[in-house]
Amino acid sequence: MEFTYQIITDSSCDLPSELAQELELCYVPLCVRLEGKEYANYLDGRELDPKQFYATLREKVPTSTSAATPGKWMDAMRPVLEKGQDVLALAFSSGLSGTCDAAMLAAKELSAEYPERTIQVIDTLAASMGQGLLCYYAATMRKAGKSLQEVAAWVLENRLHLCHWFTVDDLMFLKRGGRVSAATAVVGSMLQIKPVLHVDNAGHLINVSKARGRKASIDALAAKVGETALIAPERQVMFISHGDCPEDAAYLEQLLKGRYHVPKVITSYVGPVIGSHSGPGTLALFFLGSKR
Q: What is the dihedral of CA 221, 224, 229, 233, to 10 degrees?
């Protein structure tokens, strides 16, 4: 289908590649540096297979990540503008990356080149499949005939209703990123304390509570649906992302469908950009709630 505007996001959305294609989304890949080599984070894993990536992380190999540059955003936007389409860019949270700022710089420069076109960049204040879920809703609205302005207004109105609830299996990755202290990481690991975290209204990752053991932490994620779901769970699509722990993701999906009758759950890997900081065993749940 030919649209009057294109939705462009970045690979931190962590959508399954097939779903991104089905939704007719464009995206800009971020990069991961691993063992001295840089890999582009494509959703289809063509340069860095997610299972191999997490196997490497488990060997304690250091990694680093880099934001999308203005040049990469321009490379994605310019062909769209050349075709006579407008651009709606939904970018990785500015609270976690410089990717959104890069998109805004690209938009400013291209707006001067293509003054007749609309280029709107939105900071999703979201990460991983939280960003992906906003893209899913935006693309679904576009397919239903909503204009760029209508979709942008919906995203701005609802981005702070996009709940992100995470737990991690290894506190040492959060320690390395400065999310928890060294003492908390050591004691928590010894006592099997699992943090329950979320992305706050500023798009930052915040440690909210603690659970004793892995199963309790997953149960705590599911409980958040009952506490804050904005739309009845039986009428929502929910997303799960995981750091190479498909069995835990399946257990969480079972809770969502059994307890709340959620009709559709889409699961994918936490991509290497976010996975570098959260580590193997990360499990995250995304849905629309009354508050983050």
A: 50
At 141, the pLDDT band (50, 70, 90 cuts) reads very high
H or E stretch at 14: none
Residue 254, both tokens: 């079972």
Distance CA(77)–CA(218), nearest Å, equals: 39
**Distance, CA of 5 to CA of 3 (rounded, Å):** 5
Q: How many CA atoms lie within 13 A of 191 on its CB side?
A: 12
The reply to whether the predicted model has a pTM over 0.90 is yes
Strands 5-10 and 26-28: what pairing?
parallel
Contact (CB, 8 A) for 273 and 41: yes
Question: SS3 sequence, 117-176?
Answer: CCEEEEECCCCHHHHHHHHHHHHHHHHCCCCHHHHHHHHHHHHHHEEEEEECCCHHHHHH
